[in-house]
Structure prediction request, 315 residues.
Amino acid sequence: MKELIIQNNDSGQRLDKFLQKYLDGASKGFLYKMLRKKNIKLNGSRAEGRELLSPGDRVALYLSEETIQKFRTVPQQVRYPQRELDILYEDENVVLLDKPAGMLSQKAKREDISLVEYFLGYLQSRGEWQPGGTFTPGICNRLDRNTSGIVIAGKSLSGLQKMSELLRERRVEKYYLAVVEGVMKRPEVIRGYLRKDEKTNQAAIYHEAGPGRSYIETGYEPLGDNGAYTLLRVKLITGKTHQIRSHLGSIGHPLLGDVKYGGRKYRGLAGYLLHSSEIRFPELSEPFLQLSGRCVRAPLPQHFEKIKRELEVEQ
Prediction:
């Protein structure tokens, strides 16, 4: 008999899902048969597989070691890359990371090293996670390579699920800072439909619904201008790839340096000026009480602050 003690990282999932990951070579039919025959028990009792697991739960496998080895893939010893990460907030379930401009949020190609790999390396180096388990931590939202700022990551399954749910239901308020071309004086909410061309990796904005088009809303508030450029506080109401960049470009106010969407290059700037600066969480209950109603801010990157001063665009 082999007993597995459920840790925080594995809690929040159904027993059958946990078993499918742990005995990844076994069929669902085999696992349900073992549950019916009481060859797999939960906390000493018969289980159906639909039970949600909690930390400290005991899963007993009344199977031979040969059977377990037959159905279980031996994890490779993987060492994830490490680098210093800017941690804005951390608890046992959630981490808020400040991603630098130039770093991918997640891999685009197999050989890429992204924020995901560095996040896993961070947890691995601290002994909080190791490859080969039934759960792999991950990020819940993505930023474009040249967009800096706040990325939400789940350390535990419950953290990953809850943060993803909040984002999907638009219950997290996300604010960005951007420098755009032209003068903007009044707060507005602009609406439209976005269609992403996967071949060119470019989004187009339309006024009407159509095939492959997603409805989008973007709010903005001008904070200051120098007569040529405006510093905006942008509220991302919906969240689509390239939404802020393409939406502002479509109304004649592209981001400074964003040549893909009509912006002009600026000396010393590789990319554009867009920073995910602030996240506000709704009222939450345990185990997320520490995040309930909380506002987390990410400071402006040095290159953003430098160019803002050069342009004399101040709040």
Observations:
- DSSP finds seven helices and 15 strands in the chain.
- The longest strand covers residues 214-225.
